[in-house]
Specification:
Four Helix Bundle (Hemerythrin (Met), subunit A); coiled coil; 7 helices; mainly alpha
Amino acid sequence: MNPTPAELQNAKHEQIDWEKKVESAKVLDVARLEEVTDGEVEFVQELLDAFDESSTSDVNNIIKAIGSSDTKTLKLSAHSMKGACLSMGLNRAGTLCFFIEKGAEGLLEQEVYNGLNSNVSKQLEALHENLVSAKAAIQNYMQNVSEK
């Protein structure tokens, strides 16, 4: 079922302020990471390794989906990555994935695709930069915990 004109307009409007919402999210929510791992550095490293593997696959799928206008794969890959990010406390990256997923929901018609594609591309670029920052934050966390 195609979205109504009002839903399309809302999708366009929601994309405008994604940068503000992303900036307000924490790069790393240490409390969430500690909740998931019980503060065990070895487990944090295992999660980070698994995340590296899955996020690489998800990002590659997102890139391919954008190139082929495959909104289903774009939405599923962004959703998958959002869950992985948020479960580890990578709130900023998770928020970026949320907006990529929202963009995919609005990509159901060509005119919306044309209008939002540049946002999705910008979001993907921001996601890549944020993943680098998030991984550095986790490494810093592990180093600080190990030194205690």
